[in-house]
Amino acid sequence: MSHSQESGGRRLDRRRFLTTAAVGGATIVGASALGGLDAEAAFAEPMDSLDTAIPAAFAEGRVVAMNRNVLDVAGSHGERYLIQLTNATSIWKLRTTTAESIEVGDGLYARGAAMPDGTIAADAVWVNIVNVYVTIRGIAKDRLHLTHGNEELVGHIVPDTTTASYLGGALTADLSRTRIGQEAQVLGAWRPADGNIDIARVSLGH
Amino acid sequence: MIPLVSNLAPLVCALLLAVTGAGKLFGRQTAQLAANTVLVRVLNDGRRATLALRTVGGVELALAAALLASPEALLPGVGTAVLGAGFTGYLAYARATAPESSCGCSAAAEGPIGVRSFARAGLVAAGGVAAAGADAAWWSQLTRRPGGSALVLAAAAVLLLCASADLDHVWLLPLRKARIKVFGNPLPSAAGERVPVAATVQLLENSLAWQTAMPVVRSALLDHWDDEGWRVLRYAGSYRDARGTHPVSVLFALDLTLTVDTAPNPAVRVSLIDEETEEVVPSSVLTPVPVRTALPLAT
Amino acid sequence: MACGSTSLWAGEATWFCCGNAWGSCGSAGTGACGTCQSSKHMAAWPNLSAACWDITRPDLCGENMPRRTCGAVMNVRHQCSGATVCVTLADCGPRTKSFCGEATCCNGACRTNRVIDLTPSAFTAIGSLSSGKLPVYIYE
């Protein structure tokens, strides 16, 4: 058995185990809250999402080198960051993915904890993520032609990934209600090779 | 026909260069435009890049004047051809070394260097070659063959229109709108397809379960999969008890057919699995809500 | 100036990038105030100036937020988690008028209309960039 098959099999086993745990012994919260959590008690106290026992850290920049699970990142204003990726680090690059998809030259934002040795242990890394306000100038089968300020962009439609939200509604794979001339917010992954965008979601107003 | 094109080329080139040159030389946005071009890296300085762009604008204006005033002279035509070849070389270099940079060509529209930028540069070079071969002044050509001249000028205008993004709203957008009206929207309508993962995440983030578990969650979405009608979303988190801080997997299981449109208040199953012991953590760690102090304030 | 706790506004928060950074930020530059950087806790406000108001026009969605100028500070709090971040105004935005009526909710409580744009640094302190928008309360 090849290494990848083996690790794929392990991943499936792990998922199976986690699914059983998630569905089986879970607390149900929501519409049919079966004696789960007391919602009022949960909201009574304002809470903050990050633990201040470990100082929160943020990094922004472009990947200049990768060494196993450490990213060497050059900040846009001359800073330098070493970002550690762990099993608990979420990685977004157009979709939820793994560290293998990160390449030298990619841009990123990372949130995590500052370590005593000066590195950042990342909780979450968003690679090449952009969120731009655009006007739709053209619609083709596999792409949208967009303008962002005075800049022209091509937004590529990625099958099984690109979604749309109309007037704040649920995200849907139905992209057919986009119109030329419409203003929209495009969240996607910037492509360093040509400066265009792979679209994750397009939010359309009225 | 060829002498006619040659003799009118100085006029067409001059008009084009006058517009783009004036835009670069006098435009208020030139500095911002220059900042996004590859010139900044080559010249190592934003101000020098702006100066270079304005200088090119000046050269374009001078060439335009020369082409208009002495269309039969060889030099303005050759100069224009050299300029066009220079533009093409610059674009090729910029595209190879900094593909995301702007071309800075027309002073109005920015954007990654594409086919149109090369087409424009190519047209300038070709126009220069044609202008160098002119054997009569454009004004005498206009009076001698007004019909043919009008045709050539109209064709040149269409070519330039297609190669420039500045006037897209005049012809390209109406054309694209009409095409969609006739042939329909080419994008997928995806009726009856499965709910995208992003829609399930959106549903989770709207739910009481998310609100309850947020203090424990540290990562963004780490993994997801579908199993027997459920969509499981996994996040990394940590909780603290008397023995210290423990890493956990925070698992949410949602009905994979629901979205915020169909289920404003969904039932979500939440489980915490200790990453070290692989044991289910009792949900009591979620209540009472762990006390956390405020984030550091920006200074 | 420190961030306060007097309630100012509520609505959706979105995010944007600025400064001399990668992606589409370069063309945005350092924003209307000339100070904006993605890596700092900063924000864009729809009523930064009269010229800004003309672009964002939140009044068309029924949002008549007061004028706050470059350098003003605000506490932005996630409606659901209570996670809070203190931001400094550095740009004009978001384009409220283009998304009138858009809502973001948690557990049935919804916040309507885009009223503040946060830099990635500020947005990630209270939420996930891939979500794109959050329901927030704003204090000063």
From TrEMBL, chain A:
InterPro entries: TAT_signal, TAT_signal_bac_arc
NCBIfam families xrefs: TAT_signal_seq (TIGR01409)
Protein name: Tat (Twin-arginine translocation) pathway signal sequence
TrEMBL record, chain B:
Domain of life of the organism encoding this protein: Bacteria
Subcellular location per the Swiss-Prot or TrEMBL entry: Membrane
Chief location: membrane
Name under which the protein is recorded: Methylamine utilisation protein MauE domain-containing protein
A matching Pfam family: MauE
InterPro entries according to UniProt: Methylamine_util_MauE (IPR009908)
This protein's UniProt keywords: Membrane, Transmembrane, Transmembrane helix
Domain Methylamine utilisation protein MauE: 7-131
GO terms for biological process, alphabetical: methylamine metabolic process
GO cellular component: membrane
Automatic annotation (TrEMBL), chain C:
Gene3D superfamilies: RlpA-like domain (2.40.40.10)
Protein name: RlpA-like protein double-psi beta-barrel domain-containing protein
Lineage: Bacteria, Bacillati, Actinomycetota, Actinomycetes, Kitasatosporales
